């Protein structure tokens, strides 16, 4: 069943897949800027649980009514808080990936009572990295490229920085890049500047610094997850760094950054093994 929820400055669309006879709390599957369609395969592997997916504000079916150009993790966290209230107030379990993992950490810092377990999969928080200055400079360059040259040129650089293993070089902005056409992306700038990743979430997500004191004190069980095949990449390194700051060890999940995906958006991970690992982690 698909529902809508009015929140300050937006209207969220969310989907509830009800499971009969379960005693487990709802399982939320969240990403950002990925919408609910990216979790189709993972949701299918949890038919014994009530699964909730949603489109973050300004993405997919969800609308922005505030006229603002950017969405912060704290704003997304407030949306999630209101969504959980609409589901009965919680506590719920959450699997959160990428920017969704950043938003999940922001939620738990202020509303730990609403979340039993948060599995935060590869949150790309560059502030936690030893090469933070180079990483943040690279992200700023990607944003400038988007404003100047449009989606294709920015996406080439985004793929380069997100797949790079090891420290981000200080001269990232000067490195040679493939053309958008070579990577199967639009070569021409169509003039639009409404992409959810580059226009709304890129800077605020990657610049975000979690409230580690609040997270360490939270009643929520917070589990950091990283991909077996993404070691050395920025999001993997951030996941390890966040776990270290929380005094825990990250759990290694099968596959890569999109390892839970079953071909959605052309990305194929290992969703069967990924779901099995997630079940083990949620079971404690």
Automatic annotation (TrEMBL):
Keywords: Hydrolase. Residues 42-172 form the AB hydrolase-1 domain. Pfam families: Abhydrolase_1 (PF00561). The keyword Hydrolase applies. Gene3D superfamilies: alpha/beta hydrolase. InterPro entries: AB_hydrolase_1, AB_hydrolase_fold. One of its GO terms (molecular function) is hydrolase activity. The keyword Ubl conjugation does not apply. This is Hydrolase.
